[in-house]
Write a structure and sequence with these properties.
Layout (H helix, E strand, L loop, with lengths): L6 E5 L6 H11 L4 E2 L3 E2 L14 E2 L2 H9 L3 E7 L2 E6 H9 L4 E4 L2 H10 L4 E6 L3 H11 L4 H15 L7 E4 L3 H16 L6 H15 L1
Parallel strand pairs: 1-7, 1-8, 2-7, 3-4, 8-9
Antiparallel strand pairs: 3-6, 5-6
Helix pairs in contact: 1-7, 5-6
This protein binds guanosine-5'-monophosphate.
Guanosine-5'-monophosphate binds next to strand 5, strand 6 and helix 4.
């Protein structure tokens, strides 16, 4: 007896704190599986193959697109990013919930294919705060930061296509909000049909 796991899509501008929220969430909810994306961008300092991303060449990525190996993929800031499909599908069938930390283009592709997924948009409290966070992070050049800021403002207009929006002002609070959303989603009737049937059968067997 196992209902399918929940596919959770977390998006938001770079610097909104998605990565930090995800990491804290995985500590709080150890059964949640984080889907490691594939990318053609170069690793940043401290990033590890297979943990941060699977780092691949453009040619390898193109081949995987042709092989239909991605659940979704998108070109973000001149690089490709994608979610390896088979692994995620297997986990969901096993009843495990999977979290994707992906951009808005990818999220919209997932929305077309998996309407039952849960879409959460993380926003910083303001564009100024986002700008400061990106500069403090020190991982990107000024022109990259400017690109990220302009993308953040245009994307915000599409946030209404998500199911939930969480403002990341206080990290602990934002993590708690996302965790609460996930807890509530696991209790939805539509996600517990097999469990309900199982309990119902037990009641019925006890009656006779
Ligand atoms: P970064 O280069 O800062 O790690 O990520 C840049 C953007 O790509 C972020 O918005 C991140 O959420 C997004 N991203 C990471 N992995 C994927 C993925 O598998 N698919 C899509 N569509 N976007 C991704």
């Amino acid at each position: 007896m196992s209902d399918r796991g929940i596919l959770i899509v977390l998006s938001g501008p770079s610097g909104a704190g998605k990565g930090t929220i995800c990491a804290a969430l995985r500590k709080e909810m150890p059964n949640l599986v984080y889907s490691v994306s594939m990318t053609t961008r170069a690793p940043r300092v401290g990033e590890e193959e297979g943990i941060s991303y699977f780092f691949r060449s453009k040619e390898e990525f193109q081949q995987l697109i042709e092989d239909d190996a991605f659940l979704e993929y998108a070109k973000v800031y001149d690089n490709y990013y994608g979610t390896p499909k088979q692994h995620v599908m297997n986990l969901l069938s096993e009843g495990k919930s999977v979290i994707l930390e992906i951009d808005i283009q990818g999220a919209m592709q997932v929305k077309e294919r998996f309407s039952e997924a849960v879409f959460i948009y993380i926003v910083p409290p303001s564009l100024d705060i986002l700008s400061n966070r990106l500069r403090d992070r020190g991982t990107d050049a000024t022109d990259v930061i400017n690109k990220r800021l302009s993308k953040a403002s245009s994307e915000l207009a599409l946030a209404h296509r998500y199911d939930y929006i969480v403002v990341n002002d206080e990290l602990d609070e934002a993590v708690e909000k996302v965790a609460s959303i996930l807890r509530a989603e696991t209790c939805r009737i539509k996600r517990n049909k097999e469990k309900i049937q199982y309990i119902y059968n037990q009641y019925r067997n006890n009656e006779v």
